[in-house]
Amino acid sequence: MSFPRFPAPSLAVGLALAAVSGSLAGWWAPPGLPGFLAVAVLLGLAAGRYRLVVLLLVMGLTALAIGEARQARLPEGLSRQDLRVTATITQWQRDGSLARLRLAVSDCRPLAAVRPDCRRLERVRVSWYDPPALATGDVWSLTLRLRPPAGFANPHTFDYGAWLWREGIGATGYVRDAPPPRRLVAGRPGVREAALAHLDQRVADPLTRRWLGALTLGASERLTEADWDLLNATGTTHVMVISGLHVGLVATLMLWLARGVARLVMPARWRLAVWPWWAAALAAVGYGWLAGLEPPTLRAIIMTLIGLWVASGRHAPGPWQGWWLALALVVAIDPLSLWRPGLWLSFTAVALLILAWQGRRRPAGRRGWCLALLRTQLLLSPLMAAAVLLAFGRLAPAAPLVNLLIVPLVGSLLVPLGLAGWMAAPVPPLASLCWQGFGWLAHGLHAALVATAGAVPLWEPPGWAIWPTALALILITLLWGLPGVTAVPRWLGSLTLAVLVVTLAPPDMAKGRLRLRVQDVGQGQLVELRTAHHRLLYDTGPRFRSGFMPLSTLWPAGQHFDAVIVSHGDRDHAGGVPELVARHAVARWYSPLADRPSTAGEDAERRRCRAGRGWRWDGVRFRFLWPRGTPPEKPRNDRSCVLLVTAANGEQALISGDATTAVETRLLDTVPRNVTVLVAGHHGSATSSSPAWVATTRPRQVVFSAGRDNPHGHPRPAVVRRYRRAGSCLWNTALDGAVTLWLGGGPAPAVTTRRALPGGGESVGGDCHAIESPH
Questions:
Q1: Highest mean pLDDT: which of 112-126, 243-257, 383-397, 640-654?
Q2: How many beta carbons lie within 10 A of that of residue 257, not counting itself?
Q3: Helix residue spans in 456-523 (DSSP H)
Q4: Does a cis peptide bond (omega within 30 degrees of 0) precede residue 75?
Q5: 744-758 pLDDT, tens per residue?
């Protein structure tokens, strides 16, 4: 048995670049791409340039795969329409009365006539309230109400829409009760599901059971929210999610064992034996298969197999050729991996290791290997910290030291003990002994992580500090990783960069200026207003039926707000109050009846938002225009606090909550003319924004805070036309994401949006979009 001979280095680089460029071309979808590639392939064949033909085919196949993924999305015309689908449950997780399912769709048809076709839909993610007994592999006939994949778009927050894209999910929604669901085929548990059921029966301790499932079966969905919080706080998430680290450790252990056996049975020729390398490769593939062959695991298997080939030295590529070949295979097999941060984390880390170690002598002895591992860990730590900071906006200061201890512990003890328990499963007492040892170590490790997180908590820097800090960490990594850099510039540069990071200060904001940001929270409202030294929230966003509050995603815990105005008690405006009270500090509450939220601390001041009441912060004036006197009992929307904010240069912002046309009529003699910014009343409902109100305020900028494809049809078409006739620039958080406006700094307010509207839309005077109603 022998190893295959490696092709020329330029081919590996070409394959990788072809796969990457094909994926990007499929995303941008330039017109005429298929025809161009077909002609190029034919010309290459005619000229005998077969290597070029291979590269073009790789490029074309990856572009086609990305194009198919783009087509496998729910058409806009089927948003919030009832669809009857036949689908197989591929993943599911229960949380109380709610189940979250990932479905592979085999058939889809709209229930209503004259609707777009949905047969291209392949994968969806849905919620199911109070579901029956479910199992992976079940085939169901379900009625779903879906919408195209999208998430909230706010600065410095997790991009849920991008996550849905790279996971290949074409729609999200929920299961409807009518027509009723029908189970067509009961799922048969696979090896992984049977193994998890075996764990549930044999292992009583919850922590041991969860960690065993995650480390040996890739069942990270079994980890609790508390587990994830602890792993994030200590920078050890990668240790508990099966990755190249785990697959590589399993392959290395098998290689050591197999070479030890070879040394015993063939002492004269054990160094020439090939089968230990094949045994290591099979161990890596078997471990990945047991863990479910999810995209990160598949990437880890490919990189490990190429790494084994490089290390074997038998007709093998060099390190860089292996790197390019692994990248080509990963992207060609799974083109969507190009959008996964894990791919770039993995390949960047390996590239750094090649840079740092290529050309060095192999470590000698146990002490040499320990020092080499220590250097490797310390070299990777700042780079990984920078990558996590850019991808997730957090940094665990204790991660370098913790990983220095936990990686060898998990790799040399926990994973081997867990896998030994599975191999000893036919002998239950022996398996229990292995897993009992695993449990003791897991509890000890858990206690150490808890203590570390308490002593050195997770740091979630403000948005303005993320890029400078990450850039400093990357430069420190390069100083120590690049060969040829001497000790003096390394130490001097590292200390200088560390001082710069520690002394970072937020950008100054001039007195008299106002930043108004209408956050994207779906069908609800949350407006953040900032002056030079103060911060105010107008409303707290919705609380959905699942209990999720978008406010929880906007800022790290520990924020201070000088005032919070809860315009009225509707859940889409006051829904985030519990999260705000639990995680942040509020100095003063305003509401129509001066009612403090039931969970607020007694030390929080509370006041009524009464017409005429006002204050001044940093040269910016805040004043309530409504309610006057005692707020009305009904309708509750007419209790809404109406706030007018005036910057130093006279520019004004007006926020009216859900106040109806009756309130607007009473305020016509009070509101200013030609308002700079207006947050449209009641999300653009027909119950607000009367013709007289629009004609009087005549706003230059109008922001609708509404949910994408919301069932109420906000903003209503008559309201949109009314503001357009007034010459207003119109913005909608459903399409633009968070809308940020700066007042008090010049002749016109600066406007930025988090999401660019495809196609740009029709201009309504200046750089603004014409936001059409969904009706």
A1: 640-654
A2: 14
A3: 463-481, 487-502
A4: no
A5: 986 556 899 988 754
Percent of the chain scored above 90 by pLDDT? 47
Reference 160, options 420, 465, 520; nearest CA is 520
Please compute Rg for the chain using Cα positions. 30
Distance CA 257, CA 188 (A): 35
Tokens 């003063």 label which residue? 588
> SS3 sequence, 144-174?
EEEECCCCCCCCCCCCHHHHHHHCCCCEEEE
Q: What is the pLDDT of residues 283-307, one digit of tens each?
A: 999 888 877 788 888 998 999 999 9
pTM score, two decimals?
0.83
Using 50, 70 and 90 to split pLDDT, how confident is the model at 359? low
- Which residues lie below 8 Å from residue 1, measured CB to CB, with a gap of 6+? 274, 275, 278
Taking CA atoms, 171 is separated from 87, 326, 420, 711, in Å, by: 13, 31, 41, 17
Task: Tell which residue, 636, 720, 653, has the closest CA to residue 685.
Answer: 720
Q: How far is CA 634 from CA 432, 484, 597, 631, in A?
A: 65, 76, 20, 9
Q: What is the pLDDT of residue 270?
A: 67
Q: 131 is written with which tokens?
A: 């579901």
Q: Which amino acid is at 700?
A: R
Average pLDDT score over residue span 82-110 = 91
Cβ atoms 150, 708 nearer than 8 A: yes
Q: pLDDT tens, 495-527?
A: 999 998 888 888 888 899 999 999 999 999 999
Q: Are 524 and 572 within 8 A, CB to CB? A: yes
Neighbour tally for 412: CB within 10 Å = 13
Distance CA 565, CA 550 (A): 17
The DSSP letter of residue 114 is: S
Identify which of 626, 631, 653 has the alpha carbon closest to the alpha carbon of residue 642.
626
Tokens 């357009």 -> residue: 724
Give the β-pairing of 588-591 and 605-608.
Answer: parallel
User: Do 726 and 693 form a contact (C-beta atoms < 8 A)?
Assistant: no
750-753, strands of its sheet edge to edge:
605-608, 588-591, 563-565, 535-538, 527-530, 514-518, 739-743, 750-753
CA neighbor of 183 nearest in space, from 134, 144, 119, 145: 134
φ, ψ at 611 (rounded to 5°) = -55, 135
- How do residues 416-458 score in pLDDT, each as one tens digit? 899 889 888 889 899 999 999 999 999 999 999 999 998 988 8
Q: Three-class SS of residue 83?
A: strand
Q: Are 568 and 584 in contact (CB under 8 A)?
A: no
What integer is the mean pLDDT of 86-114? 90
> Of 334, 324, 353, 346, whose CA–CA distance to 6 is shortest?
324
pLDDT above 50: residue 760: no
Whether residue 761 has pLDDT greater than 50: no
Residue 287, number of CB atoms within 10 A of its CB: 25
